[in-house]
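user: can you give me the structure for this one chain? tokens are fine.
assistant: on it. calling the predictor now.
[tool input]
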Amino acid sequence: MSFEPKVEEAIMLAVEYGGYDGAHHKDWVIDQMLRRLMEPERYKKMVEACGGSYDEGIAP
């Protein structure tokens, strides 16, 4: 099964880094996946919509 390249990248991030313990690492994985899946302007609007409570997490 093949996906669009940006979907493949998001999947690979989940596979490679999704198993690290710690919510701060999982937050980072989710953030990185969103960055790859969303257009930059839409990502920025999504972060702004979180009203300052958006956490980019910490890389494992």
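assistant: here you go. Helices lie at 5-17, 23-37, 40-49. The chain has three helices and no strands.
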